[in-house]
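> forwarded from #structure-qc
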């Protein structure tokens, strides 16, 4: 009986640790929701309790040095590689929200939220107004 309780206790704590180890932070491969092509590697990092994301690698052949021609303000004609595309998500339960995401292809910014969809998949939703009017991409964890 003591052995069974010990085993169950160990399994319980392992389960808790695996859930806690799941995080939005790290490197993610973006997939174009229209074409299905791999587009970039994005690193999500934490600063002052908020989440930010920047493009660390462009995967499309011939576009590795592309600039954001359609962006406005300080980002106009700046390299997409290294560009911050999510600025200051706040944690709200299982969701990170209350920030904007930049689409470097169009130069437009959208409200966004992010949630984990399993252990190695991230649901990224960009929208205008309210969350029903937008589009979703699924990013995949990059194993390092």
């Amino acid at each position: 009986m003591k052995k069974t309780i010990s085993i169950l206790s160990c399994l319980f704590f392992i389960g808790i640790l695996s859930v806690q180890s799941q995080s939005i932070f790290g490197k993610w491969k973006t997939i174009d929701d229209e074409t299905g092509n791999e587009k970039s590697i994005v690193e999500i990092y934490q600063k002052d309790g908020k989440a930010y994301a920047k493009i660390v690698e462009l995967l499309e052949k011939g576009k590795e040095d592309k600039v954001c021609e359609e962006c406005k303000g300080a980002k106009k004609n700046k390299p997409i590689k290294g560009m911050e595309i999510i600025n200051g998500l706040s944690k709200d339960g299982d969701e990170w929200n209350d920030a904007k995401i930049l689409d470097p292809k169009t130069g437009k910014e959208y409200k966004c939220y992010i949630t984990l969809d399993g252990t190695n998949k991230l649901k990224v939703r960009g929208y205008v107004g309210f969350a029903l009017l937008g589009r979703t991409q699924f990013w995949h964890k990059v194993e390092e």
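QC bot note: The chain has one domain: 23-141. The longest strand covers residues 38-47.
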